[in-house]
Amino acid sequence: MTVKKSWILGAALLLLFCVIAAIFALSSQSYNTQTIQPLLHRTLSVDKAERIVPNLDIRYDGKEYRRDVNPFGLIEFLLRKGAHLFVYGVLAGAAALVLRMFRLRTSVVVGLSLLTVLLVAILDEWNQRYSTARTPTYQDVLVDLTGGMLSLAVCYGISRLYRRFSRGR
Q1: How many domains does the chain have?
Q2: pTM across the whole model
Q3: pLDDT value, residue 139
């Protein structure tokens, strides 16, 4: 392995471990530390919150999130699940970046990247069992896997488009 590739592998591994460390640092925090509802109450009126949130009802882990009942709770829920999709998407991308350095087949890279996401997501939910006012749920593992799959699909889609258009030059 050349010096340049060693440096890239080291940077990719550092990114991977930083993402995993951030996930566990956040899952160790209490819900009260992470909630953004007080900020939403200070910055938005109920009317404005109801206008910016789509008119939908979500049932998730035995709870109901509704715009007409608690728009701030719905906003927070959507942001939290969006954060799950994003962070676990970054995790999948970082894992794929590391694995690509070993010249593995794409299917192996995708499979191992998603396995990494699954293992970290399960450990993350297990860690939440010991955090104050946090509720571990299997649904979050599914959201995390979805984020990983979407990220890999986007990354590989962009890669294919890039290769297709760069060959035509």
Answers
A1: 1
A2: 0.90
A3: 95
